[in-house]
């Protein structure tokens, strides 16, 4: 029993971290957000809601500047104030912003947002357990190897989530009569809007897949859908 106690402690630590960060995220979002009331965006979310056969899609504005969309673990969808500002400034169209809402809806529908919170804090537990175990085998490099392994695992999980959410969004946009054009255009704009052109770190280590790969995946879906007989 005593032998396993470091691992047990690491697991308890991970669980506590998860509880705490879930609570803190929810609290922060509550305090710094309001429901978006924009007629242009509402018109588009209305057609998406109709396509999904649900009464309405609520979108919230999170009062921070970095351009981003977010799906909270409780299923709420957020756009940052900075993102909305880009729309108001004419840098992003309403349809493009709607594609972000569709993408975040995908994360919610596919259960990513909840899992991601677990992933994020679960990562700490995995990191500590790996570091403890590897530290015995490799006294000097163990922690480094544990960190690298955890990062690669996390990056792979989140890249997969992005492709799945993109596919969900593409299907929803098509069904709502908006097509995949806005989604692809937004992905291309996103590189400049978020201020990182995807240079530097190798693609497989970054949490987001390369824009060109994401656009190509959407185009592949589009090609498959348009080949189907009309019906
Ligand atoms: Zn995403």
TrEMBL record:
Q: Extract the GO molecular function terms from the UniProt entry.
A: metal ion binding; metalloendopeptidase activity
- Keywords noted in UniProt: Hydrolase, Metal-binding, Metalloprotease, Protease, Zinc
Tell me the Pfam families matching this sequence.
Peptidase_M48
Source taxonomy: Bacteria, Pseudomonadati, Pseudomonadota, Alphaproteobacteria, Rhodobacterales
As to how many cofactors bind and how, the note says:
Binds 1 zinc ion per subunit.
State what protein this is by name: Metalloprotease LoiP
Give the EC number(s) listed in the UniProt record: 3.4.24.-
Q: Name one GO cellular component term.
A: membrane
* Domain Peptidase M48 as annotated: residue spans: 37-220
Give the protein's cofactors: Zn(2+)
Q: Which GO terms describe its biological process?
A: proteolysis involved in protein catabolic process
Which family would the database say this protein is a member of?
A: Belongs to the peptidase M48 family.
């Amino acid at each position: 029993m005593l032998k396993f106690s470091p691992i047990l402690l690491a697991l308890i630590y991970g669980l506590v971290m998860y509880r705490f960060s879930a609570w803190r995220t929810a609290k922060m979002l509550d305090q710094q957000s309001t429901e978006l009331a924009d007629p242009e965006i509402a018109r588009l979310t209305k057609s998406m809601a109709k396509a999904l056969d649900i009464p309405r899609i609520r979108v919230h504005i999170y009062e921070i500047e970095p351009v981003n969309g977010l799906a909270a673990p409780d299923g709420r969808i957020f756009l940052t104030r900075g993102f909305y500002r880009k729309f108001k400034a004419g840098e992003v169209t309403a349809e493009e912003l709607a594609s972000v809402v569709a993408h975040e809806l995908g994360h919610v529908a596919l259960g990513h947002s909840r899992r991601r919170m677990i992933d994020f804090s679960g990562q700490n537990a995995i990191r500590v357990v790996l570091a403890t175990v590897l530290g015995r085998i490799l006294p000097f490099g163990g922690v480094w190897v544990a960190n690298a392994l955890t990062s690669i695992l996390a990056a792979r999980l989140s890249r997969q989530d992005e492709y799945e959410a993109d596919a969900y969004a593409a299907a929803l946009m098509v069904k709502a009569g908006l097509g995949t054009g806005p989604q692809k255009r937004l992905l291309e704009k996103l590189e400049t809007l978020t201020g990182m052109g995807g240079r530097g770190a190798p693609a497989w280590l970054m949490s987001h897949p390369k824009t060109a790969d994401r656009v190509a995946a959407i185009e592949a879906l589009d090609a498959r859908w348009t080949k189907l007989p009309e019906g």
